Amino acid sequence: MTLATAVHNLLKCSLDQLPVDVWIHRNNFDNLDHQRQLEDFTNCLRANHVSNRDHVHCRNLLTDQCGMSFEVGLDSNNLKPYVCHDHLFSKPGEGNTSVPAAFTRYAQCISRLGSQAWRCLPKATSVCEKSQIRSLKAVRFNMDAMEELLTMAPDVKVIHYIRDPRGVARSRVRAKLLSRIAKGNMVTDARLYCEKALHDVMIRRHLEQLHPSTFMQMRYEDLAQDPMGATHKIYGFLGLPVPENVLKWVHASTHASMAGGTFSTVRKNSSETAFAWRSEMLPDAIESINKVCSELLDVMDYPLHV
Known about the structure:
This protein is mainly α. The chain has helices at 3-11, 20-23, 27-30, 39-47, 52-60, 63-66, 84-89, 101-117, 121-130, 146-152, 165-175, 186-210, 220-225, 227-238, 244-254, 270-274, 277-280, 283-292, 294-299; strands spanning 158-162, 215-219. It has two domains: 3-130, no CATH class; 143-299, Rossmann fold, CATH 3.40.50.300. It has a two-stranded parallel ribbon. The radius of gyration is 21 Å and the shape is globular. The relative contact order is 0.10.
């Protein structure tokens, strides 16, 4: 199954066509506060003895093969490509012919959970089918797969959300999420981010010529500085009015009395958060990132010096 096919199945609510991993992902449990509509589905999973710990247990069987986050690229320990994606995503007859025992154990683990979770799936499908807007945040989706998706779903709308690499670097350092490929080096991590982001921007600009009403670019900083204005632009792009409850949620999330944790969407001052890198990062680090990310900064109209 290609990435585009998986996204298409999500958008058309064909959840039974998705890998079992998606149904039982730990985020279905951890983020329940943000998706109360799925509470019946989550409760059903628990009633059938499927929990977030079960999914984590299955994933841990592949840590040596795939890294902690199933990272695409090189293993920083031996600089050899992970075999993870060969075995998990190749079609029959493709990829490596010998399957490490860890993948067999993982398949058995996921299959067991899937047989228990299957009866709960109609509850999630029903919620999806009743939704006026079907949207997803695809952090690891790339524009290379977008052309395939547009052949399957030509009416899809795409909001390309991009953040200043210096803000990304500061955020990843604070969250201890620097790439294993970068070996913990912030500047190397920023360079990898900028190479991917620039590639996506170039592909998107090409696709915009073929699908002129499909794409919208949104910079993280623009949304942080004017959350209400950005929200109205997004809904205008979709051709929909902004629901009052959405405006209330946006205001509450960007002007909270107290900021949430590292992975929270709640901020006391969203604009201050967006530009915190200017005061928290050393000048030499900023200058190094400016050099390795100069092309992306220019294309996205981010100033080199502030």
